[in-house]
Design the sequence.
């Protein structure tokens, strides 16, 4: 007579530690208002990433889903603005440099 | 013996039965206990997993690390710890197509296509104080637009930090009958290249001169738009120095420590030496005028004459080469601008009627004012320059933005032409906006100083407005029955505007604006020039221009930007 409990339950019982979840990088806050007008609706930036295989997502506060992806080593693109604060998330990059090249205002 | 064997067997069977019953009872209890324990543990684990799953975004996004930009020289903003994730999360998709920030996903590799637009519709009430006009209601579409912006990243092809950019933008007259002035590409449209050393673009664009102070006007697009006076040389419904120039090429520098420089060149490419014709590539549209508007020479538009190329009908401000440049500076709460624009060979023979027309010889002839002087306006350069600045601070209620600039506008005429020169004057503008939560409350003031002269007679504000000046070359009374010689009277003007705007969110707002313009008898400024869906001018039903009318308007509308 088999007196063992069902294997599936035993398996769950043994897995005390939940699987490790992937970690999202900490967003780095950047205030663009020093050089970019408060009325700007978008800023064009050149982003340089180190190491060059890294990537960065830059987005306005509260608009992460509208972020812009920058790939290393250096790329240019536009970031929508909804206020003076933008956030930078680095993926595989240790550091970054932002150069403002232009901005756009509504007529 | 047999009985013993039977009884022994029975005893063994009974014992076995009784033992097995006891054993079964003990096993079931254990199992039940284990099952209970497992169920409890399972429930605890399930609860843990759920709580971890629910808390994952919060746990995964630690507090942002502020970076003080003051620590760094120039533009660089930098530095972060190594991020552990191997790649950014996949973006949202629509129908399997990647979508980036509202823009459509790549149609071509490394290309972002963005659809965007701006809608501004208002309801207006206005009174030009003209004897046969009264108070009117109106609905206007105010510089509503729709566009497609494309950015093709060249970095993957070995051109680090560079991109090809293109834009196709159209005016959308959602409140008026459709015309070709709202055709695709009527607004800023271009193809160009962006790089860390700046951008070069070609096509059509608002001039650097125009863009340098655009943000200072809290009532742009409305009947309180500052272009009623600022950048407006003639004091009518067209702002000559608030232009979108066609067939142009321009450069925009990167931002160095808050400074940015931009310059634009638009070749005249005119068929006529005196710029009296259309530019190559333009048809029924004189340079310097709005589509179908005053001075465009579009068939049956105001002042137009018959003829296509060779008709020499561009005599109301058409010019040749145009140059525009601006330097802007921003450092924290302080900003400053300096801008300059030159229009070469501006043809104003429409005022003196001396345009030579090879196709209609003998047609032109001199025009005299009541005092006996012959009007001379000719073809001359016109330029404008402005300097200004702004400051932003917090007064406890919220941010306050102050802005002001001073403008010089000149038409380089000879001394004999000065009495007819209404294109040279100074102007000044100031505005203030108080932000309180989602509200912005603004006020502005613009002043046009006197000009040296005027080439026309203006009408009195009465039923005789259509009775023209008597002017046959001999001195006459400068004030006559229906009209008067404008260059004998003050033509300075003041514009006042107040308003409020409520921001529902980052995309939608509602506004209300009131504006009034007061002017000397020799002036004829309008409200809503170069911004609103239409202009409110001091014209009577016969299109006679009433001099010195006080024009009042109020407008309320909504904007939605995407």
Sequence:
């Amino acid at each position: 007579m088999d007196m063992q409990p069902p294997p599936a339950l035993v398996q769950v019982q043994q897995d005390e530690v939940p699987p490790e979840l992937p970690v999202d990088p900490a967003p780095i806050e950047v205030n663009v208002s020093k050089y970019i007008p408060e009325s700007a609706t978008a800023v064009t930036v050149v982003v340089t990433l180190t190491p060059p295989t890294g990537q960065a997502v830059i987005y306005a506060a509260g608009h992460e889903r509208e972020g812009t992806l920058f790939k290393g080593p250096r790329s240019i693109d536009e970031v929508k603005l909804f206020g003076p604060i933008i956030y930078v998330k680095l993926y595989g990059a240790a550091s970054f440099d932002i150069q403002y090249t232009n901005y756009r205002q509504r007529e | 013996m047999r009985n013993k064997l039977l009884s022994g067997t029975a005893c063994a069977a009974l014992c076995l039965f009784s033992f097995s019953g006891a054993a079964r009872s003990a096993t079931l209890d254990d199992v039940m206990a284990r099952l209970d324990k497992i169920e409890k543990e399972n429930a605890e684990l399930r609860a843990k997993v759920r709580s971890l799953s629910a808390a994952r975004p919060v746990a995964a996004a630690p507090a942002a690390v502020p970076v003080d930009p003051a620590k760094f020289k120039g533009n660089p903003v930098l530095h972060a710890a190594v991020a552990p994730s191997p790649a950014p999360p996949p973006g949202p998709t629509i129908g399997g197509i990647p979508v980036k920030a509202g823009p459509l996903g790549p149609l071509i590799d490394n290309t972002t296509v963005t659809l965007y637009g701006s809608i501004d519709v208002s309801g207006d009430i206005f009174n030009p104080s003209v004897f046969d006009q009264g108070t009117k209601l109106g609905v206007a579409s105010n510089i509503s637009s729709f566009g497609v912006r494309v950015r093709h990243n060249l970095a993957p092809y070995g051109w680090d930090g560079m991109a090809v950019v293109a834009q196709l933008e159209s005016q959308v007259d959602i409140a008026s009958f459709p015309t070709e002035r709202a055709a695709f590409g009527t607004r800023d449209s271009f193809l160009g290249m962006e790089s860390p050393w700046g951008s070069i673009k070609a096509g059509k664009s608002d001039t650097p001169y125009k863009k340098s102070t655009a943000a200072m006007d809290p009532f742009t697009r409305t009947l309180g738009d500052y272009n009623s006076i600022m950048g407006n040389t003639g004091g009518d419904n067209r702002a000559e120095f608030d232009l979108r120039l066609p067939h142009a090429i321009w450069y925009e520098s990167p931002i160095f420590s808050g400074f940015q420089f931009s310059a634009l060149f638009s070749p005249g490419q005119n068929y006529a030496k005196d710029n009296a014709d259309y530019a190559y590539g333009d048809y029924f549209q004189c340079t310097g005028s709005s589509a179908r508007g005053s001075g465009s020479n579009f068939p049956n538009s105001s002042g137009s004459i018959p003829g296509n190329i060779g008709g020499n009908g561009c005599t109301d401000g058409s010019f040749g080469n145009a140059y525009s440049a601006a330097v802007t500076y921003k450092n924290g709460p302080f900003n400053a601008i300096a801008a300059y624009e030159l229009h070469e060979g501006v043809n104003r023979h429409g005022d003196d009627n001396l345009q030579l027309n090879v196709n209609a010889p003998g047609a032109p002839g001199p025009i005299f004012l009541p005092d006996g002087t012959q009007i001379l306006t000719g073809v001359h350069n016109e330029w404008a320059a402005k300097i200004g600045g702004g400051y932003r601070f917090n007064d406890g209620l919220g941010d306050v933005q102050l802005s002001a600039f001073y403008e010089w506008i000149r038409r380089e005429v000879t001394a004999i032409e000065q009495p007819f020169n209404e294109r040279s004057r100074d102007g000044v503008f100031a505005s203030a906006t108080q932000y309180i939560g989602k509200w912005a409350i603004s006020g502005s003031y613009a002043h046009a100083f006197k000009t040296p002269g005027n080439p026309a007679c203006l009408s009195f504000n009465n039923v005789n407005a259509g009775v023209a000046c008597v002017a046959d070359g001999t001195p006459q009374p400068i004030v006559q029955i229906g009209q008067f010689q404008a260059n004998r009277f003050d033509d300075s003007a003041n514009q006042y505007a107040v308003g409020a705007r409520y921001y529902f969110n980052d995309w939608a707002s509602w506004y209300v604006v009131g504006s009034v313009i007061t002017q000397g008898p020799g002036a004829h400024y309008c409200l809503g020039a170069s911004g609103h869906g239409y202009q409110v001018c001091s014209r009577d039903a016969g299109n006679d221009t009433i001099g010195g009318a006080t024009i009042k308007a109020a407008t309320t509308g909504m904007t939605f930007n995407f």
Summary: Chain B touches chain A through 82 residues (CB under 8 Å). Residues 170 and 183 of chain B are 6 Å apart (CA to CA). Residues 10-26, 55-63, 69-85, 99-105 of chain B have pLDDT under 50 and may be disordered.
